[in-house]
Amino acid sequence: MSKLPLIAALAAAGALPAWAEVPRVVTDIAPVHSLTAQVMKGLGEPVLLVQPGQSPHSYALRPSQARALQEAGLVVWVGHALTPWLEKPLDALAEKAETLELLDGDGTIERPYRGAADIMAAVARMEQAQDDHDDHGHDDHDHGDHDGHDHEAAMDDDGHNHDHNGADPHAWLDPENGKVWLGLIAEELAELDPEHAATYRANAAEGQARIDAIETQLKAEVAPMRGVPFVSYHDAFQYFELRYGLQLTGRVTASDASDPSPAHLDALRDRLGELGVRCAFTEPQFDTRLLSAAIAGRDIPILELDPLGRSFEPGPDLYPQLLEAVGGSFAACAATLK
Fold first, then answer.
1. Compositionally biased, Basic and acidic residues: which spans (predicted)?
2. Percent of the chain with pLDDT over 70
3. What domains appear along the chain, each with residue ranges and CATH number?
């Protein structure tokens, strides 16, 4: 006699164990997808909305991605400050899903938006600190934990009225946030899927240990860049800069990638010579002709910084590879000084 009717009857009566289904997870950008994929390793694969190389500041969902949001049990995203366009789709399509906004997560290191005036003030403080060091023979300043900003709203030389109390959303570029976010993602999934809680937490701990090892490498690799002036196309790297004591002295566009004013570009050209800028950094997802025009006629090498991991395959390895690549770009700038 077949056992199938008996099994069906037992299942209907609740006599068989109910194996929990791994939640369907949707993520916004590749670094967040990578951290989530690390936590879910061996259990499932999250969906990525914004592919590496595309700007997260503006994006149009494809139909398949809209369906993924409708089917999601959890959406993990940086937050409104990075992808404000995602809020309406979340409300309309993922109303049944849990959401984890990482920028607001417990333990996240959050830096305020900085305007051009903030950057110059930080440069002045760096120069004063160097003078004090030269005068006293030692440096009492901790470069890794000061935000170096004046918290006020002002018209900066981008020509835009920015609120300096807003958050800079590029927080994944501080490796300490990467470790915090692994833990937050693991705990959220453990709550939704208690059966696999131990796996989520073990995967998060493995990812945190890997980041610890990379941080040790990065500290040594980028140390020669301390005090070396550089400019970038997009103000996306302050989390990395402040972690490792680096100093941006100018940028073409602000943190939100808004178009710069002619006055801002003129001021940037003037500062290149005054500050002795040694390197300029482009990004793969933006048209960087404005940066090339700003440094035209000056012997300043153009290198690439990639905040989103465009050249790497999405998955658990992308975030560690991204950190290593950013460190390698700064090291390449330092190598031009020799």
1. 128-173
2. 74
3. 22-108+172-215 (3.40.50.1980), 116-171+224-335 (3.40.50.1980)
